Amino acid sequence: MIDSPQQVERLLAKVTEVLPMPARVTPELAATLRQPDLVAIPPTCLITSVNYAGDEGGIMCRLDFGPGYDKAVYTSITHLRFDPRLPLTRDITAYQKHRIKRIRRYQP
Q1: Domain tally for the chain?
Q2: CA–CA dist 55, 70 (Å, integer)
Q3: How many other C-beta atoms are found inside a 10 Å radius of the C-beta of residue 38?
Q4: Concatenated DSSP letters of 33-92
Q5: Which domain does 74 fall in, by range?
Q6: What is the pLDDT of residues 49-83, one digit of tens each?
Q7: By three-state DSSP, how is residue 24 classified?
Q8: β-pairing, 73-76 with 80-81?
């Protein structure tokens, strides 16, 4: 098992309470989303909803890039960065580090 069910439940509850929540897109995610026929991906977005996709996907976030970008974008919370001044940043960062470490351990 990659995620701790108790940690996921607590974090989902906390994040759901403060939605919409600002986040920054990692360069890797921006490169993945970049398509020639679409407007440029802004470096910041709002998380508008969160769900748990099991060990395969972890905590998934629906992103809103504002007007001009009408495609629905969902990504794992591990592909986002957060302002250190936000109260939940420490909890989110702990989840991200734990998840990435466990994924690396389970890779064949």
Answers
A1: 1
A2: 29
A3: 12
A4: H--TTSPPPPSEEEEEEEEE-HHHH-EEEEEE--TT--S-EEEEGGGEE--TTSTTHHHH
A5: 5-106
A6: 999 999 889 999 999 998 877 788 999 999 999 99
A7: strand
A8: unpaired
Which tokens in the block code for residue 50? Answer: 């969160």
The end-to-end CA distance of the chain, in Å, is 15
Q: Are the C-beta atoms of residues 100 and 79 closer than 8 Å to each other?
A: no
Nearest C-alpha neighbor of 86 from the set 27, 29, 35, 18:
18
Sequence-separated (6 or more) residues with CB below 8 Å from residue 91: 10, 11, 14
For residue 23, give the H/E element and its range. Answer: strand 21-25
CA distance 43 to 41: 6
Q: What is the pTM of this model?
A: 0.87
